[in-house]
Amino acid sequence: MPNNINILIIDDEVDVGNFFRRLLRRKAYDLTVALSGKEAREQINTGNFHVAMVDLKLPDADGLELLQEIKSVKPNCEVIIMTGYSTARTAVKAIQSGAFDYIEKPFDDILVIEELIEKALEFGKKMLGDTDTQPDWLPIAARIGYEVGNSPAMLRLVSMADKIARKNINVLIQGETGTGKEVLANFIHEAGNRTEYPFVAVNCGALPENLLESELFGHEKGSFTGAANQRKGIFELANKGTLFLDEIGEASLSIQVKLLRVLETGEFMRVGGEKPIHTDVRVIAATNVDLEKAVRDKTFREDLFYRLDVVRLLIPSLREHKKDIPVLVNYFLNKFKNKYGSENMTFSKEAMELLLEHAWPGNIRELANTVDQSMALCDGQIILPAHLSKKFSGKKLAVDSGANGDDSVKNIPVNEIKSYLGNSLSLIKILSADTENLPELLPVLRELSEELKKLCDDQEVCANYSLNLQEVESITVARALSRCKGNISVAAKLLGIGRNTLYRKIKDYGLSV
Question: Residue ranges of the Response regulatory domain (predicted)?
């Protein structure tokens, strides 16, 4: 790090300025100390600083207002907020307003301060165009299989999550279903100081109230019918670790009361118990509903909401960062390759265009399922539009340009064309499983048959063939059984039919399992 680094300290306590002079003297930084908001504004307007350390509360100024002024006048200056223990919520809001990070006073660890300033300087270099280095959190994300993507919205989100991960504060994650709230919660756990202890997740909307209470707090032997033994709850199992409460908005009001008590006192009692049990957990809650509206509607406790909403992270929907779809697709292709024994499977340009055009109401979970299903239907290495599920079938396929002399289409290898046609038949089979689709399919099949006959006649090729839907179905069922190694349940799921229906078709066509 070069020596011509300018650091601005804004704090009304003279001792704080002297502390930083002693601490940073050996770094040979140029240090300026401002003891008031007035002095700070003079320095901000006349000086050039790389890092500013700003006290949140000054006699004549508010630290958040100074933060906004610094970022307005000197946008490349990274700001670190200094705050007391009781104002952590405001300090977190400062990060959301553009602060690099915050540190609590009194300062307990000098090394932490030095490291924080160094990180702020490195971050400032990246913002000025030095992008050779990757984000500090990237190895953590890679270790847990979290593909963040490259969109600014996702990078800002995960950078924010990384900054608050080491703070012992509760987090509320909001986002639509399928956006990856649990994955983000796990990232916060892995990036924090509790990674050596458990990360425990529970879906508050998946269990009835009596079971959820037992799941959260445990129960004593004989406390209710079926309680044959004492059982620890997840607050006890997650001690010193992280507890992820998914769909917290679905918890009943009585459960909310008990959750509030744990967050306030760090104590709970098992169902049927009489002795309080102490727990030290970090709570990360998630919801896809508007909790503020739920508070207004009296379906969610206001005091619990504010206990959980110390830091709020909003995950954007996939349609808000569609540029990440190719990156996510490649991630899922790699994730599922062992399942299908394919190392180099890719999506064709036309198939990728259909993915980019889709609205993705199910977000990343829907994208993962789409990639999984497409790989199951593809016999070759290139996933074509025909391999996509029927929700994409209404989209226009960009393959008709060959009729106009497009060499890129004419030069498609014959094996790819065979794979495309073969999997088109598989798609027809899946669509025809629902008899309501047959009236719409038959005209298409009839037109295809006529075009094939005409093409063969024009080219003087023997056209003695028949298009028999039962033959297509028999081949498709046999292929599914082969791919699934005779597993009836998996093959039925792949074909989109019931197990009994598949058994009947195996018998009708005389297929072996």
Answer: 6-120
For residue 287, which phi and psi values (nearest 5 degrees)? -160, 150
Peptide bond just before 106 cis, omega within 30 deg: yes
pLDDT at position 459: 56
Residues 452-466, mean pLDDT to the nearest whole number: 56
Note the CATH number of domain 141-316.
3.40.50.300
Per-residue confidence band for 400, with pLDDT thresholds at 50, 70 and 90: very low
| CATH classification for the domain delimited by 320-509, as one of 1.10.510.40, 1.10.8.60, 3.40.50.1980, 1.20.1250.20 | 1.10.8.60
DSSP structure class, residue 280 = -
CATH-assigned architecture of domain 6-127: 3-Layer(aba) Sandwich (3.40)
Closest listed residue to residue 179, CA positions, set 276, 314, 311: 314
The residue among 210, 221, 266 whose CA lies nearest residue 239 is 266
CA angle, 411 then 416 then 421, to 5°:
115
Give the Cα separation of 430 and 19 in Å (integer). Answer: 72
Let me know: does 49 contact 6? Beta carbons within 8 Å.
Answer: yes
Query: Cα–Cα distance between 94 and 112 in angstroms, integer?
Result: 19
Amino acid in position 273: G
* Rounded distance between C-alpha atoms, residue 345 and residue 371, angstroms: 11
What φ, ψ does residue 482 adopt, rounded to 5°? Answer: -65, -45
Backbone angles phi, psi at 61, to 5 degrees: -160, 160
Same fold flag, 141-316 and 320-509:
no
CA 309 to chain centre: 19
User: How far from 359 is each of 155, 321, 366, 367, 385, CA to CA, in Å?
Assistant: 22, 11, 10, 11, 16
**Cβ 417 vs Cβ 454: under 8 Å:** no
Residues in CB range of 149: below 8 A, 6 or more apart: 155, 321, 323, 324, 327, 328
Every domain of the chain and the residues it spans: 6-127, 141-316, 320-509
SS3 269: coil
Angstrom distance (rounded) from CA 332 to CA 330: 5
Report the distance separating Cα 174 and Cα 129, nearest Å. Answer: 32
What is the pLDDT at residue 170? 92
Q: 254 Cβ partners below 8 Å, 6+ apart?
A: 209, 213
